[in-house]
Amino acid sequence: MQKIKKGDEVIVTTGKDKGRRGTVLNVFSDAVLVEGVNIAKKHQKGNPQAGVAGGIIDKTMPIAISNVLVFNPKSKKGERVGIEVAKDGSKKRVFRPSGEVVDI
Fold first, then answer.
1. How far is residue 103's CA from residue 46's CA, in Å, rounded to a whole number?
2. In the CATH scheme, what is the code of domain 9-44+55-95?
3. What local confidence, expressed as pLDDT, does residue 25 receive?
């Protein structure tokens, strides 16, 4: 079970986008793609056959998974997430400081 999943609202803890919040679009092994965070300029060559215009486009780049925390709406801040195993063997994600279940 992953601690950060697609669709989670996360907050950036370090770097140029520190303090910004966004939704996780994709999760890689050691990085996440967060909507509206870590935007880079990419020079794209046009392709008339495919209908792609050339120019400078904004592209969302991955950010290290260690630099984001899942946002807790009750405490209004980012918190670490842990995995809790129930007696029947089912797993659920919980916020570390409070023990509340992470709802998606």
1. 43
2. 2.30.30.30
3. 97
